[in-house]
Design goal:
globular, binds S-adenosylmethionine, 276 residues, 9 strands, two-stranded antiparallel sheet, alpha/beta, Rossmann fold
Amino acid sequence: MTDVRAEALERLAALGVSRHEARWLVEEFLVGSDLDAWSALEVAATRRLSGEPLQYIMGHWPFRTLDLDVDSRVLIPRPETEELVDIALAQLAHGDARNPLILDLGCGSGAIGLSLARELGERGIAARVIAVDESIEALDVARRNARRHGLSTVSFLHSSWYDDVDISLEGRVDLIVSNPPYVSSEDLAGAQPELAHEPLGALVAPPRDGVEAFDDLASIIDGAPRWLRSGGSLVLEHGARQSSDVTRRLFDVGFVEVKDDVDLGGLPRVAHGRWP
Ligand SMILES: C[S@@+](CC[C@H](N)C(=O)[O-])C[C@H]1O[C@@H](n2cnc3c(N)ncnc32)[C@H](O)[C@@H]1O
């Protein structure tokens, strides 16, 4: 490490930025060592110390093989969602579709759908991905990310869950993936302050059927059978406390091979089932 970088890290640490985050900021903003770079770094440190997430300050963040633009219009893609993509890829491999049709419900930055398009493409599989969000602002970010990475087989749809999905796709979808809002307002109030910078509509869901923050998960599960082809899969991220409610609902609407996979922390977080 150069003396200038070492000095910058010391300055940020002295201000109270953690070493780990200081490294990211120095890499991002200390391009050269002129005054402009130092002042950009100082502004970034001030934003971080005021509670803004590192990822929004940098304006981009890695997700699997992609570097994604992120800002306060979209949820910051999380590591557990990277695991969801592995599970979705395994479900597709099992289903053996050559040109799979995929719905990414609540696409945010595009993390899931764009990763699937990219990684399937690398395996010679031309997936058609429809990335859906009810937030026009999120769709703008996702579209920009698709353009940045040349992922032209991904299209974008402004819709509340399945409401505006074209009727011609009924019974034809190979995979529905979603990381929907699944946090209760009570849990959000007690969560890390950084979450307050992320869009509320990306995080918080109302209760349903006596289960906290279950409304969006339930809507997605209940709606899926109409769109999936026989043998198609639904893969859903959810909160650790919602595991039994999600898997029960999947069984209740008729899914088979229902399973809930644990994340790196050992908690059940990604449920999936196959439509018979
Ligand atoms: C938890 S974020 C997930 C974003 C992204 N898929 C990811 O994993 O990083 C949930 C997303 O669902 C979207 N959303 C919330 N309610 C929705 C609805 N009724 N219909 C479609 N999208 C919705 C939000 O705008 C947000 O982008």
